[in-house]
Structure formats: C-alpha cells, structure tokens
Design a protein that fits this description.
Blueprint lengths: L10 E4 L3 H12 L8 E4 L3 H11 L2 E3 L2 H5 L4 E4 L6 H8 L8 E4 L6 H6 L6 E6 L9 E7 L5 H12 L2 E5 L5 H9 L1 H18 L4 H22 L3 H8 L5 H11 L2 H25 L1
Parallel strand pairs: 1-2, 1-4, 2-3, 4-5, 5-6, 7-8
Antiparallel strand pairs: 6-7
The structure holds NADP nicotinamide-adenine-dinucleotide phosphate.
NADP nicotinamide-adenine-dinucleotide phosphate (NAP) binds next to helix 1.
Amino acid sequence: MSASLSAESILTFVGAGNMAEALVHGIIQAKLLQPRCLRVTDTDRRRLDHFQATFGVTGFERNVDGVRGAQVVVLAVKPQVIADVLKDIGTKLAPSTLVVSIAAGITTHRLQQQLPAGMRVVRVMPNMPALAGAGVSVYCPGKQATEADAQLVESLFQSVGVVVRLDEKHLDAVTALSGSGPAYVFFLAEFMMQAGYEMGLDHATAKTLTLGTIRGAARLLEEMGQEPEELRRRVTSKGGTTAAALEVLEAGRVKEMFIKAIRAAQKRSRELSEGMVDG
Ligand SMILES: NC(=O)c1ccc[n+]([C@@H]2O[C@H](COP(=O)([O-])OP(=O)(O)OC[C@H]3O[C@@H](n4cnc5c(N)ncnc54)[C@H](OP(=O)(O)O)[C@@H]3O)[C@@H](O)[C@H]2O)c1
C-alpha cells in the first residue's frame, strides 16, 4: 500500500499550531487539496475556530474523531505529547494511513514502535520560514514507506518551500543547520541593526537596510550560482571598508565560533532525541 492524493483524500493535522497553519495555507494555495478534504484537531477550541474561519477546514477537539477515515495524518504537536497522541489514535487509524511526523527528535523507529505493526511513517524536519512559504524541509521515509509516500510528502512540503530527502542519520545535523538556522540569521540581523543605531541611524532605517541586505545577499547567492566565499572576495577590496570589517571578524574567530555553535546544536539535538527514545 502507498499514499497518493485524490480529490477526495482526507488529510488530518493533529495539532493546529503554527506549523499546521503554514502547511494548511500552503496546501490550499497550491491546490493540492480542497479545504473540505483538510481537517485539524487541537485541544484548544479557539485554534479550531481560527482554522475554520481562515481556511474553511473542519476542526475536531478529539484526535480520534479527526483521524477517522484519513489517508494521511500529519503529527504536528510538540514532541513531548507524541507518545500520548499515538497511544490515543494508533489503533483507530486505518492500516493504509500514511503517518507523517514533524516532531523534532522523534525517530521513524520510535514512531513505528508506537504504531500498529506495518504502518508507514515519514519523518520531516521543516523550519520556521515555512510560515512565510519559504521554508526548508528535510524528510526521511521510514522502513515501510513507499516511493509514492515519499513523493506525496515532497509535494505537501514543497507548498511551503524547498524540500530535501536525506538519510535519517543526518537529521541532527539538519536540525542544527536549517532547523535552528533561522535563529542564527535573526541574531545577525540583531547585531547589524544594533550597529546601525550606534552609528546614529533610527530603528526603521536600520531595519530596512539590514533586512534588504540579508534578502539581497541571499538572492545573489542563489542567482549567481557562486560559492559564498567567492562572492565575499568580490565584495572585499584590499584596504577597503569591507576588508576592515572582516579583519575584525577574523581576529574574533567568528567563523570558528559559528561552527562550534552549530555543532553544539547538533549535539543537543542528538541528546534530546536519545532522551526521548529512552524515556
Ligand atoms: N515551529 C517551528 O519552527 C518548527 C520547526 C521544525 C519542527 N517543528 C515541530 O513541529 C511541531 C509543531 O510545532 P508548532 O510550532 O506548530 O507547535 P505549536 O504551535 O505549539 O502547535 C501545537 C498545537 O498542538 C496542540 N496540542 C497540544 N496537545 C495536543 C493533543 N494532545 N492533541 C492535539 N493537539 C494538541 C497545542 O495546543 P496547546 O498550545 O494548548 O498545547 C498547539 O495548538 C513540533 O513537534 C515541533 O517540534 C516546529
């Protein structure tokens, strides 16, 4: 068995939070499914009302009601509640249901252990810019998942950005790089803006210049097809202003610190994931 979407397929999000909202928005915009085929469940009635009012999708307060008859179930609750949710819905799912989890740190092996034998699972690690339709999602199919399942997951997550398929052994690195990555860029934006104020610019101007620069640099990287290092060299004339700034960054070993920071995130991701397997 495998999953593909028909005009009548039912897809349920368990947990109507930020990520579910980004995906529901993306799926409807991309016309992958009609709102009547989408369901959300949540313990908070206000979230369900919000989804109903914004997207016209049906909400359920009980997970078991929301997943009944669904071809695809996306687990979009916090990792800490996944075990309880699966205990609740596991035996209520049709054996042909594809279970997709976006919960950080929960392995496909763990999901399979908590579901009836033979169920197909796919694990996905999206990131926060999915909320703006510009996310990066990495997915890894579980052992029982088929190529059609992988294609389906790819099309769902393409509706909120770029999708990459990887072996699950890379998921801690992915979490450290693209999962936590937006925070590194926000941090950089904070520093640039702070420097702007200190040099006498007002908040609005510092923000416009910082955001425009980050957006422009990212676009240039994509459009020129050159490595970041090459573009950095091109913008740095010997003895010029950029060179003066980069000398300070190099003296402060910013590159080494960045790599160390990302490796720390990878280590933490591994610890959290192992903690959940043990717990
Ligand atoms: N946001 C990100 O950038 C991001 C990136 C990568 C992966 N993820 C993963 O995506 C998942 C969802 O993240 P999120 O940011 O969308 O979280 P979120 O906004 O907190 O959404 C989760 C929703 O599920 C509800 N909920 C709690 N227990 C439930 C239950 N037993 N049954 C049904 N609904 C329940 C929550 O209600 P209450 O608030 O009332 O508890 C909340 O409305 C997480 O596992 C996270 O690890 C998120």
